[in-house]
Amino acid sequence: MDMEIRPATDEDWPHIWPFFRTICAEGETYVYPFEPTEQEGREMWMERSPGLTVVAVDAAGTVLGSAKMGPNRPGPGAHVSTASYMVDPAAAGRGVGRALGEYTLKWAREQGYRGMQFNAVVESNARAVHLWQSIGFQIIGTVPEAFKSRAHGYVGIHVMYQKFD
Predict the structure, then answer these.
(1) Of 127, 131, 121, 130, which Cα lies nearest the Cα of 160?
(2) pTM for this prediction
(3) DSSP for the chain?
(4) Is the peptide bond preceding residue 50 cis, with omega within 30 degrees of 0?
């Protein structure tokens, strides 16, 4: 698939917001409110420096998904990066998540981070867990019943990590 990943602009937010809202409402993958306001969503998703938010767009310029990345923690934890991803459900299965994941890893390495940590990968989100493992992340721990899935009830949250060489 012909896809470009580029920094998100203010003009991209109206195209991110519909799938951001849908994914939050589903209540299966993010520890975000089920019904954030548009302003809350924008504040949660659109990163400021030293972080970055990007969009994956197809040849027609349609936003297929988005990722945000930056330091996992401030101060003495700022040498480890983190990232979050949302793919428009209409673009699922087209390699958008993998492309965004690979992009964020490359970006983090170029920025000098020593690794990337995901703080909250919902264990029942099998597609995401498999994808992240396939690009080199390991589950380093699971917090039992830390997420209340609308479909599965209380499920664990994985902490996943990839150390950079």
Answers:
(1) 121
(2) 0.95
(3) --EEEEE--GGGHHHHHHHHHHHHHHTSS-SS-SS--HHHHHHHHS--TTSEEEEEEETT--EEEEEEEEESSSGGGTTEEEEEEEE-GGGTTSSHHHHHHHHHHHHHHHTT-SEEEEEEEETT-HHHHHHHHHTT-EEEEEEEEEEEETTTEEEEEEEEEEE--
(4) yes
Residue 102 in tokens: 């690979």
pLDDT in tens, 30-76: 999 999 999 999 999 999 999 999 999 999 999 999 999 999 999 99
Token pair in block for residue 67: 């990722």
